[in-house]
Backbone:
């Protein structure tokens, strides 16, 4: 199949985009996946796995289960040259084509077993607490509050968010509906204040927390649900440092190649594509890039490459096991209908199928 440009494809990052890309290319190229963990996890199912640890059995998938014909390097990439990728362990991995898919940085354990145990520990923390403080009102904080409110209605849940509204990544209507839903489930939501986690103190009945508005809150434990940093800090010391925009995103052309580079692509949350950062869009980018790489490897001309068009503003935030709030391009709805789309199995079946499992 080699069109003269070589067929070694190295993919950095085994998240939603990188894993699908590897799976799609494995029988058409010499694929190497570099990822610090041995597994791919369906990130949006993690919060369900915290309230129901066995849920993780299907949402945490060893890379080897879907990547049967590729090399897996369990490490982080720390540098890139024109010809190879350097890992933290000092391995030099040569490439003909490189794809960067390092999305967001989430320090999680290396093995699947450790990750499943982590869900059990988090679950014990939830079940043994009577009152829980959630710090952060983005998708993670809101979905997590929803999971606890539905599965453990007897617990007191407080959610503190620094912004003036929840879910700032989508529209005001969705935020209002989510707020209304959470309050209807007795979740206490406090906006425009920050929790100072350095001033936390143990008291007779749990812990006390202080917020930026001078309030004192009491809870048995807290969960930090603030946004994860982009996985691009390591690129700042590489030859791609000038390819990062001011937010730390990789600037790409219409074919998802890093601007000015012919053989280096980027997919998923790490790119500067002006669209809402969602996994289904990261998957679309991965599928298109797999096709483009196949064309390039068979010697097709650049004019044959597909171009990426930014996606719509569709996003669904689950609210427990039955409900969700969905932002569709022309309307926003909350309740059982969007819940039927996402909240029962959190797209786990659909994602596994996409991965050939
Ligand atoms: C609570 C929540 C709910 C969500 N719900 C949905 C939903 O319902 N539907 C949807 O479509 N999207 C949803 N999303 C968004 C979705 O999770 C992201 O858009 C998606 O994960 C992006 O995929 P990615 O492959 O770009 O990055 P990620 O999935 O973040 O993967 C990045 C990978 O890169 C690896 N990595 C990082 N740095 C390095 C390095 N230096 N070397 C090697 N590997 C590295 C990481 O280990 C990780 O495996 C949700 C997000 C959240 C937080």
Residues:
């Amino acid at each position: 199949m080699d069109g003269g440009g070589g067929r070694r494809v190295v993919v950095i990052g085994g998240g939603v985009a990188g894993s699908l890309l590897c799976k799609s290319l494995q029988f058409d190229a010499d694929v190497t996946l570099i990822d610090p963990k041995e597994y791919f996890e369906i990130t949006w199912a993690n919060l369900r796995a915290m309230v129901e640890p066995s849920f993780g059995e299907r949402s945490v998938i060893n890379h080897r289960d879907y990547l049967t014909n590729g090399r897996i390097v369990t490490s982080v990439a720390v540098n890139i040259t024109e010809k190879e990728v350097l890992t933290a362990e000092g391995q030099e991995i040569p490439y003909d084509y490189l794809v960067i898919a390092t999305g967001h940085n989430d320090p999680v354990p290396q093995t699947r077993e450790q990750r499943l145990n982590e869900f059990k520990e988090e679950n014990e923390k939830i079940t043994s607490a009577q009152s829980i403080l959630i710090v952060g009102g983005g998708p993670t904080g809101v979905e997590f509050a929803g999971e606890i409110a539905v599965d453990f209605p007897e617990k007191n849940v407080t959610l503190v968010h620094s912004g003036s509204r929840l879910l700032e990544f989508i529209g005001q209507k969705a935020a209002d509906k989510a707020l209304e839903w959470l309050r209807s489930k007795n979740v206490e939501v406090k906006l425009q204040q920050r929790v100072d986690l350095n001033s936390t103190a143990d008291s007779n009945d749990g812990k006390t927390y202080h917020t930026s508005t001078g309030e004192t809150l009491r809870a048995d434990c807290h969960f930090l649900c603030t946004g994860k940093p982009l996985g691009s800090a390591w690129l700042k010391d590489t030859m791609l440092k000038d390819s990062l925009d001011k937010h730390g995103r990789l600037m790409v052309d219409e074919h998802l190649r890093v601007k000015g580079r012919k053989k280096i692509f980027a997919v998923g949350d790490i790119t500067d594509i002006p669209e809402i950062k969602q996994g289904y869009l990261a998957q679309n980018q991965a599928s298109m890039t797999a096709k483009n790489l196949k064309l390039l490897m068979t010697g097709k001309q650049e004019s044959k490459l597909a171009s990426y068009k930014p996606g719509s503003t569709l996003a669904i935030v689950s609210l427990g096991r039955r409900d969700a709030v969905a932002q569709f391009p022309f309307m926003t709805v909350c309740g059982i209908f969007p819940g039927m789309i996402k909240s029962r199995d959190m797209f786990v079946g659909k994602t596994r199928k996409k991965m050939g499992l």
About this structure: Residues 12-18, 34-37, 43-44, 76-77, 101-105, 139-140, 143, 231, 234, 268-270, 277-280, 282, 316, 342, 347 surround flavin-adenine dinucleotide (CB under 6 Å).
